[in-house]
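User: I'm putting together notes for a lab meeting next week and I want to include a structural view of one of the chains we've been expressing. I don't have a solved structure, so I'd like a prediction I can at least talk through. The sequence is below, exactly as it appears in our construct file.
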Amino acid sequence: MAAIHFANYRIPFPPGPFHTGFEESGGAAVRWMRDHGLGSDRVEAHLATTRPQLLAAFAFPDIAQSELDLITQWLAWAFLLDDELDDQDAAPGHCGRTIEGLIRTLHGSHARTPMERAVADLAGRTFRAASPGQQRQLLGDTEAWLWTYFTEAVDRAAGRMLPWTEFRVHRRDSVAMFALLDLHDLVNHIELSDTARNLRSYQALRAAVAEHSGVVNDICSYEKEQASGYTHNTVCVLQAERELSVDAAKASAEALLAEIAASVLHASADIAEDIGIGELSETDREALGTCVEGYRTIARADFDFHTRVPRYQAIS
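Assistant: Thanks for the context. Below is the predicted structure for the 316-residue chain, given as structure tokens.
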């Protein structure tokens, strides 16, 4: 395996501190998966190569150990589900039934499978500290992410590749970053008013951070996904639609990444201006400032995670 290098892109968000309890969270995730019937040699090998505790530690350097454990377990569950439903052999019917069961469980129905029992535990522990509004936000973003697996399975079965403009919107949901931003708000006790949440600049910041994550993931996953025939990937879509070589498509994806990072910075500056124009409350002003700093930290954390863990190492 060869380490991933970005030929031209230089991320403009500086690295930050790192939660020192990541190894403890990694061990807790293994025990948690075993306790919920998900433990096996295959699953534990998946955790060893994915190392979700690193993403949690980069993204949330200052939270309590119990919160780091919970977020690591959410990530471990999500990556395990991703491996199951992103499989080229995953039929649309299987994806649809799996997602329906998970969503029913998230809304309180009886859990029937190990994956459903695991997410029921995660949701129960998370929602104990969440307001009704925070619950609705996290549930909505999680459901939107889950349904992307079904739509991708249908696309694969139909031999269909989305045009770039449609794929770009789809990728913001399919990378699951919105749910991670929701968890950021929850652990930081942030609940924005509807007025603040509907600021165009705030929505633009969330969209840009999600899009940044999707393109980083697609660049780092390209060789692995190309080998398996998986085409819901930014590099693949750009290559096909613009009739580019692989190298040119990768270069285009990196150029896009630079544009998206600039959008993160632009939206951050717009929020600072809009706070005054919108005559927001002091609570909203402080919360939006925390979101700007935290979301940019998560964008950097996601980049560092992708370039370090074995899951995304290029095939040499």
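A couple of points you could mention at the meeting. The mean pLDDT is 93. The two ends are 5 Å apart (CA to CA).

User: Perfect, that's what I needed.
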